[in-house]
């Protein structure tokens, strides 16, 4: 089983690119605080590279920003390539299958959770705008519901 669940803050704005075939890919890094301070009493963090593909990549690039808190569910992947000097470079990263935006702008805790992702990278589960429609959001306007609409 290869399953990773992380909650952290973005260290910089996501970077959106496209493959030669036009597939969107977004990369970003989550800073995740370790649960205990080190021997010097300082809190340390781990910096985990995240990769999102297709619609999920577009959405992450559009709505995530530096400092914002996010939850990422995905799988761990390792790969290697030869750099310009001909040296083999090994990369470990999390391929996102589900990303939830936990904080508001600048990391404020709005609790906004669009629930992007799923077992397929966003495709086929719902249309893009359904992820943003929250019937329970507090808009400050009165809710017009007739007694006939209530199940009790």
Automatic annotation (TrEMBL):
**Could you tell me which residues belong to the region Disordered?**
105-152
User: What is the superkingdom listed in this entry's lineage?
Assistant: Bacteria
Q: Which GO terms describe its biological process?
A: DNA recombination; DNA repair; DNA replication
Q: Can the keyword RNA-binding be found in this entry's annotation?
A: no
Pfam family example for this protein?
Answer: SSB
Fetch the InterPro entries from UniProt. NA-bd_OB-fold, Primosome_PriB/ssb, ssDNA-bd
Q: What Gene3D superfamilies does this protein's entry cite?
A: Nucleic acid-binding proteins
| Gene Ontology MF terms | single-stranded DNA binding
Asked if the Swiss-Prot or TrEMBL record annotates the protein with the keyword Membrane, the reply is no
Q: Where is the composition biased (Gly residues)?
A: 105-121
Query: Which Gene Ontology cellular-component terms appear in the entry?
Result: nucleoid
Keywords on record: DNA damage, DNA recombination, DNA repair, DNA replication, DNA-binding
At which positions is motif Important for interaction with partner proteins? Answer: 147-152
Q: Which CDD domains match?
A: SSB_OBF (cd04496)
The protein's role, per its UniProt record: Plays an important role in DNA replication, recombination and repair. Binds to ssDNA and to an array of partner proteins to recruit them to their sites of action during DNA metabolism.
| Assembly with partners or alone | Homotetramer.
Q: Which HAMAP family match?
A: SSB (MF_00984)
Recorded hits in PANTHER family, A to Z, give: SINGLE-STRANDED DNA-BINDING PROTEIN (PTHR10302)
> Protein name, please?
Single-stranded DNA-binding protein
Native species: Brevibacillus composti
Q: Which gene encodes it?
A: ssb
């Amino acid at each position: 089983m290869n399953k990773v669940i992380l909650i952290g803050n973005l260290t910089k704005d996501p970077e959106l690119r496209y493959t030669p075939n036009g597939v969107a890919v977004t990369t970003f890094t989550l800073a995740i605080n370790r649960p205990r301070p080190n021997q010097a009493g300082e809190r340390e963090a781990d910096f985990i590279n995240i990769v999102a593909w297709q619609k999920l990549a577009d959405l992450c690039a559009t709505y995530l920003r530096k400092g914002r808190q996010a939850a990422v569910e995905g799988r761990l992947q390792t790969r290697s390539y030869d750099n310009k000097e001909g040296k083999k470079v090994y990369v470990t990263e999390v391929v996102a299958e589900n990303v939830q935006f936990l904080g508001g702008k600048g990391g404020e805790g709005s609790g906004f959770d669009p629930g992007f992702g799923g077992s397929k990278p966003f495709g086929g589960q719902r249309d893009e705008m359904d992820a943003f429609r929250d019937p329970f959001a507090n808009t400050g306007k009165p809710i017009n519901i007739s007694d006939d609409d209530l199940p009790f």
